[in-house]
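User: Large ribosomal subunit protein bL25. Structure?
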Amino acid sequence: MAEVKLTAELRTEFGKGAARRIRRADKVPAVLYGHGSDPQHITLPGHATLMALREHNALLSIEVDGKSQLALPKQIQRDPIKGFIEHVDLVMVRRGEKVTVDVTLHSEGETAPDTVAMWDRNDVAIEAEATNIPEGITISVEGLDVGAQIHASDLELPEGSTLAVDPDTLIVSVSAARSAAEEEEEAAAAEGEETEGEGEGEESGEDSESDDSES
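Assistant: Predicted structure:
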């Protein structure tokens, strides 16, 4: 994965008010830490940071106070409504250093007719060099039939990467696809249970009103 260079500024103001002022200036408050060094509180350019962090496990080259430091995003806080970045925690890494990260899994191909692939998880933890983290791992489900399973040990990992989870961890299993009639029957049964529940609630409410009037 290519490095993304970002120029940062050291931050001297703290607190909610300072953070709001930073964001109004189209910048992002962040903290850079790791390797036993004191945390560095910095600000990053807003738009450039937003674009860089669209990539999972983005490798960042942070230039601050005339020095360059490689870092990986550890935690990203986003506004739940507008989606802009509110704060970023960055962990320092070195070239050649191995780190444990969650890598997104992608599928290719189609399972056998009348079957469906059930994903138990959408990512997997691996150990890889900080400067050679794969953008994702592709899993082929082409032609898999009912009962087929793919475990973590079946994944084709990039060279230099190793699993950081139990090899027996289930990733994908293949089941028979439900027919339209089965789906309709299940939906009707669920609707019947909801209707029955509402009726019970109404009856209990009538009893309650009766009790109140007696008292």
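The chain has two domains: 3-93, 99-176. The radius of gyration is 26 Å.
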